[in-house]
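Record passed on underneath.
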Amino acid sequence: MWNRRGVLDTSTEVGAVARESFKNKVTITEIARQAGVSVPTVSRVVNGRSDVSPETRARVEDLLRHHGYQRRPAAPGGRAALIDLVFNDLDSPWAVEIIRGVEEVAHASGVGTVVADPAVGSAALVAASTASAAAPATTAPAPVDLDPPHMRALARQLAEESVVLLANDGALPFASGVRRIAVLGPLADDPAGMLGCYSFPRHVLLDYPEVETGVTVPTLLEALRAELPDAEFTADPMAADVCVVVVGDRSGLFGRGTSGEGCDAADLELPGGQGEVVDTALAAGTPVVLVLLSGRPYALGRWADRCGAVVQAFFAGEEGGPAVAGVLSGRVNPSGRLPVSVPRDSAGQPWTYLAPPLGRRGEASTLDPTPLFPFGHGRSYTSYAWQRPSVDDSAFPTDGETTLRLTVRNTGERSGTEVVQLYLHDPVGKVARPVVRLIGYARVPLEAGASAEVHFTVPADLAAYTGPDGDRIVEPGELELRLAMSSADDDVRYAVPVTLTGPERVVGRERRMRCEVRVK
């Protein structure tokens, strides 16, 4: 029975036996510490993975045996005779849910005993003794649909809203006269560019290539064929009306991909010689649409002005292929915005817009760190007009707030979603401050010709920063609220001056950290 803490009561005789047997078990985290390795390494040893050195495997297995984690032979025709799961924190919600899940599976599968013991201390145990081959057969549990239609629809929505149109000289959306489409690049027909390194297919199934993914992940080529059933697809750019070049990353862990945990890059050149694929396509003379499916931004300066359009999707998920195909065809009007800047040169960095004045282009350095595409950048297939904003209070106290109001109108011929971004500029501070900092944004869906009013309620707490004495403070003085299309100075539509009045305030954890946004 589960007690009020949400764990299985072990006051029974069975629970007492389990508590006595397992109360001295240490956690896998402690075993990793004693072995001088990471927790994932211990996990790989326990799971029999081959990507562990013999010396490390021997050291970890010695400790596992020492602490009572002996491997148990499989029961005839069944699983291992005992499954031990040790948690560091039984009270955490995820641990409770795992324990409940183990109990349900145990009962449904004819498993003998499930014990969760909060009295063990910092570790808690779930022990499940499996049924022997002689046990009577039980009804198999009903299959669980891990990819139901409503979740698939949500994945499609997220993917469509995240695709970023970086550049476009009219090549997108495809014109009605486009009939022959060349699709090139290593990721054109590979789902690896859609999934991050911690997705199950890229995290686990790379070790089991014979196992099916279990989830449908259309490639961009497959999605384009479905999106444009009347088009002819080819691999020859010279025989096509337009050429789609698909490059980017295959995710993986610790060197098994080009992006992911433990997969670092010496520079931001497209990996694996993919730049040559882009060069070859451009040399054919056919308009090129460059599509990046990646986990990091890559330097695009040598191609951006030569391509008809550039589209970026950061590991867009199981519906990423159809989402990108929808943007190319025009079914989807792109509304994604860059969460990181895209550098111009390969020796650049994924530039943070949170740079102080000396971190920007200036006389202090001969290098220009200005990104090719800034944080917050993204284009659309329609146009928008922003009317001059109004502010409720241009002067308000250091513990107060003000509301900024802006009307946005869709002046194009098709529906779309504008993204209004609000940045804070603090010209004077006791320490170096970022030139601008994003404090709010609004996604504003509009039909052609429609308008909406956006309200940003800005608390003075959002101007707080950590001063030289270590306190987080709100200072009186002048600020600018910048309504912009991105973090770049050239994309600022309106700069609204406001003044904070009153004494300097020290703020703590209770400070207001969000700008309330309403779209009317």
